[in-house]
Design brief:
Blueprint (H helix, E strand, L loop, with lengths): L10 H4 L9 H15 L5 E3 L5 E2 L8 E4 L2 H10 L1 H10 L3 E2 L3 H9 L8 H4 L2 H4 L11 H12 L3 H7 L18 H15 L7 E5 L5 H8 L3 E6 L2 H13 L6 E5 L9 E7 L10 H11 E14 L1 H7 L5 H5 L9 H8 L5 E7 L1 H17 L1 H5 L5 H19 L3 E9 L1
Parallel strand pairs: 1-3, 5-6, 5-8, 6-7, 8-9
Antiparallel strand pairs: 1-2, 3-4, 9-11, 10-11
Helix pairs in contact: 2-3, 3-4, 4-19, 5-19, 10-11, 13-16, 17-19
Amino acid sequence: MTDLSTRPAPAADWGDLVVPPHDPTRARIARALFHHAVRRLPVRVVFPGGRRIGAGGPDSPVMRVHRPDAFFHRLGVDAKIGFGEAYMVGDWTSTRLPELLAAFAARMAALVPAPLQVFRRLVDRRQPTGEENTLTGSRNNIHRHYDLSNELFELFLDETMTYSSAWFEPGSTDLVAGQHRKLDGVLDYAGVTAGTRLLEIGTGWGSLAIRAAQRGARVTSLTISAEQKDLAERRVADAGLSDRVEVLLRDYREARGEYDAVVSVEMIEAVGERYWPTYFRAVDRLLRPGGRFGLQSITIADDRLRATRGGYTWIHKYVFPGGIIPSPEGIDRALAGTTLRVRGFRDFGLDYAETLRQWRETFLARWPRIAELGFDETFRRMWEFYLAYCQAGFGTGYLGVRQLAIGR
């Protein structure tokens, strides 16, 4: 077995990540809080020498802490970021990462004792001003994730190249069929048929635009990712639909024209809470009288949105800078300044857990080919943690996903 306690992290590519921060006082506090939280969780935490904590039985997931000092210093300096960073560099590991993280996610709100919750805002890092979702900031934020490499995404997504939750038929886990059903669901909510003038906000790699054009719609699709625009246009051309689909490198705030329908799938999470009213006013402005808006959004409970807004987490630092997940109530509040209202919705959060499970397993199975693109082992652990972290969130109901039919 490889000795993870001595494996070095790639300092050349990851800055000071290889060297843990040093704060003895915070590390002692983190150690005490971690022991307090874990003693009631259905997990087993194993330290060097064999010492164990946790309420889990023999079949529960195991978290092996290889470098306790580094782990608790990272956790003490910034728990929301340090926990994931410690996994990235091998301070701790687990062979059942989604189940382990699910145990933490299911009790997320209660991990810190109630008397100490009042101090969270004093120690939590806030979102950097450079990641604010201005026109320039949004482009930079999107570039950091979606422009990593089209080849990377092609290797773990299914043939539709759809990077959002599938909506499975009952009893099915067929990812391609589930993605087509999801696309049809949001297009149906928007009333897209032959001849519809459709605006899509957030192109992805073109799967929804292609599906809409196959219905006979004329599609204008907006993206601020140069990599996505390039591949989406090639996929549209390969489908023989270039005469029906136009992909523009343009922010939603810069959109012009009038459309019969607007659709947007899991793009609102990158808008930023401050700009949600701007986003919905743009849709209101672009939608003709009688037009309909089909929206798919990841969701979070409103009390969790209020408790965590403005915070800076591991996901922000390494995966989705500037992102924030709306609550259904948050969407309603942002719509209040428009003529638009929610007319119907469907939830399928567990389908996202299954989607992420398949993405994660494919990512790990194809890692040798991904590594050939120039990504290193720290990147592999980062993405393994990201996909498992999200799977746990949806699997426990901490996160949801909702399609909404919105009209005047």
